[in-house]
């Protein structure tokens, strides 16, 4: 939003205060300023001059040599303009002026000196196209800057809209000046809402039907208007705030919007088909030709202004084209209304039309300005070229005219919330300056909120704390340490476990933690078949991709992998999060489950099964290290099919007979569904079950004193069927109860022509440790023979 400092000065004497102090007060107590700039400052050196003489250029057929004067000094100017004559008063850009990025120079054109350039409306930024030099009226003062002539000598403040989205009273010059005057403790000396107007008797035939779709709605008939250009004051102020001047009637409506923040609208009386007005809602399929030359097809329940049975405006957003004011308009109907902000927001969302009026209505205006703004409009119309208009008594209704908001509080509450001792007179003075009516008794306060603040803005005692705090300045409130007892915090085992898991995955093995939305699509909800029936659909309107609460962490991780698969060779992710499950349709709340999900994206081609198996084994080893890191060594891996994993690449981990973790390679149907080009390795830990196990066993000591003797190891390669699990032989070896056997795991898996079709070579590594003597060759041979014999006796072939 743009504010004119010159316009603000009309309401409050800001010029009496250093401008830097004014800016500081705005930034610290009212809102944020995005920019401060002098309006059209580059035109300061463009002055008004009168052409004294005009001759043909001696060396150029299409150029003319002129002498112009600013009243005290003459300038020789060479021009190609054909519309200038002796005696014309024109704008002259002196050397050093920059127009359209080009600097005007004191130079020679075909051997004749030129001390500047005459300017057109286009070059002054007043029009997109122009046919020649701008000619001023004959009585124009010479030697003045065009900034002064067009009332452009002004400073423009650009306000950050987000910082005042809760303050509809600040979206206009008078409201902003009123707020600034209270903060700077200076008087207001102009009150446009107190304009006095005498109505003609009667309503000139107009009637308004009472409607619940508006807080207030008024119309009044105005006769004998004369459509022409606006006076310079109104035209320049609109331009400085970014609004194009149209004519002296429409400009008044825009001027009121910027001055008082109250949208209004003018209808051409001759184009209206009836004399009655009402506020109603659209039916699906209705259409309305608008001022922006569009004719949108409307959805149901969009707020409309009806003239008889004809829609003439999108209420609070934009007027209709068929009833617009034109150059031939003689009689008008003025509308002043306040609509419900919810209805205006609905219209904006459904039509995608966002106007300056709609921006103000959606903040929540109060209806108290509806009639005063009509009086101010009449005053402006008379000033702006319509001194002979006849204005009839406004017709309409106001449902919220008697609304008041009173807040009860006390000094102790205000002090406690502010963190500063403040006296009752100080509180009273601040609130009264801000427009509040205050009644005190002992240390209690009864505060009546001003009408321009009581809709959605100041409604509870905490709002008064904010008003006092920003007025005294937050910097004046001393920073103090919190006064609180130092107590031993309640232990949270789940949080402790989560921190340890994060530490291992992020710092020890280099995985990246991600955070995904707790929402999912219908497709996401079907990934884990076991949870599909407990999916929880969101009742309110949401995008299709966010229609459910998630019942699995996998889809979010898979989508993250898809986004990064072409950017990074290595994609290793994990997420700690909740899933949501509801059984049945009863009133009970949905269950929340806490999970850790892990994803590792394969670095190899999808058909390179041997390499992918190695990555699968590597991820299983990482998970094994995680459990050892948590001091939980006694886990058991077993094969178990899951519908979302490949049948031969799906494992679960048990501890104390409880299933804690699943690990597998995502089934290709889901890889195709989510458009993931590489194989996806996934794992999921039930954190609620894990924390129970960790609390029971994780704090036990599993320490084994290191042996004084060196460790040994044996490798044994067996030929297995391609679909045969590798865990079977490892479990078989464990049943032998070999005293020196510390661990057994799969070292490598090989497939190829050399091992035959449908076969795989699996190399097992046996770690051996003796605590009473050094291994001998005889013991190594004895153990090796025992392993070979066990393999042969159980039908395994050596490789």
Automatic annotation (TrEMBL):
The organism's place on the tree of life at top rank: Bacteria
Cofactor section: Mg(2+)
Keyword terms of this UniProt record: Aminoacyl-tRNA synthetase, ATP-binding, Cytoplasm, Ligase, Magnesium, Metal-binding, Nucleotide-binding, Protein biosynthesis, RNA-binding, tRNA-binding
One GO term (biological process): phenylalanyl-tRNA aminoacylation
Any GO CC annotation of this UniProt entry: phenylalanine-tRNA ligase complex
Cofactor note: Binds 2 magnesium ions per tetramer.
Pfam families in alphabetical order: B3_4, B5, FDX-ACB, tRNA_bind, tRNA_synthFbeta
Recorded GO MF terms: ATP binding; magnesium ion binding; phenylalanine-tRNA ligase activity; tRNA binding
Catalyzed reactions: tRNA(Phe) + L-phenylalanine + ATP = L-phenylalanyl-tRNA(Phe) + AMP + diphosphate + H(+)
Protein residues bound to Mg(2+): 457, 463, 466-467
Domain FDX-ACB as annotated: residue spans: 707-799
PROSITE patterns found in the cross-reference section: B5, FDX_ACB, TRBD
Cellular compartment(s): Cytoplasm
RNA-binding among keywords: yes
Every TRNA-binding domain range: 40-147
InterPro entries assigned to the protein according to its UniProt record, in alphabetical order: aa-tRNA-synth_II/BPL/LPL (IPR045864), B3/B4_tRNA-bd (IPR005146), DNA-bd_dom_put_sf (IPR009061), Fdx_antiC-bd (IPR005121), Fdx_antiC-bd_sf (IPR036690), NA-bd_OB-fold (IPR012340), Phe-tRNA-ligase_IIc_bsu (IPR045060), Phe-tRNA-ligase_IIc_bsu_bact (IPR004532)
EC number: 6.1.1.20
Domain (B5) ranges: 402-479
Assembly notes: Tetramer of two alpha and two beta subunits.
Similarity remark: Belongs to the phenylalanyl-tRNA synthetase beta subunit family. Type 1 subfamily.
PANTHER family: PHENYLALANINE--TRNA LIGASE BETA SUBUNIT, PHENYLALANYL-TRNA SYNTHETASE BETA CHAIN AND LEUCINE-RICH REPEAT-CONTAINING PROTEIN 47
HAMAP family per the UniProt record, alphabetical: Phe_tRNA_synth_beta1
Record-given protein name: Phenylalanine--tRNA ligase beta subunit
Organism per entry: Leptospira kemamanensis
